[in-house]
Amino acid sequence: MPLSASAIALLGLVGWSLFLVVLLANMRGIKVMGGHKAVNAFNADGSDVPGFGQRLTRAYANCLENLPGQAAVLLYALLAGQTAITDPLAGTLLGARLLQSCVHLLSTAPIFVWVRFASYLVQVLILAWWLLKLGGLL
Q1: Predicted TM-score (pTM) of this structure
Q2: Mind listing the domains of the chain with CATH numbers?
């Protein structure tokens, strides 16, 4: 049975978070195994691994901060049989999440921050639209 766009987006959001945490674990593991950092000495915000390490830490945290709301709405739509509402924009939501993370990993230069914000705004607007539609307010 083929997956709906909503199911693909949900699995994609979780899979992307998993991918980022594997990257983060590898980066930290290399620092520990290379003797550059104690296993218990990493700051949660990534401030002690400047550059890519800090951007990776924040990109992963951004995913986790948004995953519960996105997953809850997609799960609701899937369980309630309302994927006709979420399917049309599900791929856009996932794409915007991937773009936000990738841009975050690349740079914190102002243009990259603006692109990151725009991709985040797309996610927020889609989620708000879905909530209004699923709640019968539109």
Answers
A1: 0.92
A2: 5-134 (1.20.120)
Instruction: Give the Cα separation of 5 and 19 in Å (integer).
Output: 20
Assign residue 109 a region (left: φ > 0; alpha: ψ between -120 and 50; beta: otherwise).
Answer: beta
How many C-beta atoms surround the C-beta of residue 11 within 10 A?
Answer: 13
Structure tokens at 102: 């990738």
Confirm if 58 and 46 have CB atoms less than 8 A apart.
yes
AA identity, residue 138: L
pLDDT by residue (tens digit) across 89-127? 999 999 999 999 999 999 999 999 999 999 999 999 999
CA angle, 115 as apex, 110 and 121 as ends, to 5°? 125
The length of the chain, given as a count of residues: 138
